[in-house]
Amino acid sequence: MMTLQRAAFVQEALIYGSPEMPPLTQTLEEVESELQENIGCVALDGARMVGAVRARLDGELLLVGRIAIAPDRAGEGIGTTLLAAVERRGAEAGATEAELFTGSLSEANLRLYEREGYVETQRVPGDDGTEQVFLRKPLTGGAHG
Predict the structure, then answer these.
(1) From residue 23, how far is each of 83, 108, 119, 143 by CA, in Å?
(2) 80: how many CB neighbours lie within 10 A of its CB?
């Protein structure tokens, strides 16, 4: 999980010129702690983990984070598949809405999320002149839908 996360987020770090991004500086203990209440998914190709997404419930809100795709497998639809799978899990667990965020320079991420039905709800300025872009999407098919 850590290897995949670091490999995936190196590209993001290059976009932002910052090697200090949390996905790159997180310790194994921090990752293990996040996975305790995780309802995320992984994508496997044989025994190799080629993608992962984490998520947790906050009331009826599914908080989606750390979507990581192996760099050599980018563009194959793995992110789209993982997003759909984690949304389904969240809805089954009672979530009625999903929220995720990305940086304002992460154009590929923003395109993916908007294509999948996410709508920008908020921008939070960062210290580096960029913004965190928060997006939300209603979920259907859960206990309430």
Answers:
(1) 18, 18, 24, 32
(2) 12
Q: Is the CB of residue 88 less than 8 Å from the CB of residue 55?
A: no
62 — alpha (psi -120 to 50), left (phi > 0) or beta? beta
Q: What is the pTM of this model?
A: 0.77
Residue count (the chain) = 145
Structure-token pair, residue 45: 């190709």
Tokens representing residue 118 in the block = 């996410």
pLDDT mean over 15-31: 65
Contact 60, 95 (CB under 8 A): yes
Q: Stretch 21-33: mean pLDDT, rounded?
A: 64
- What gap in Å lies between CA 23 and CA 56, rounded to an integer? 17
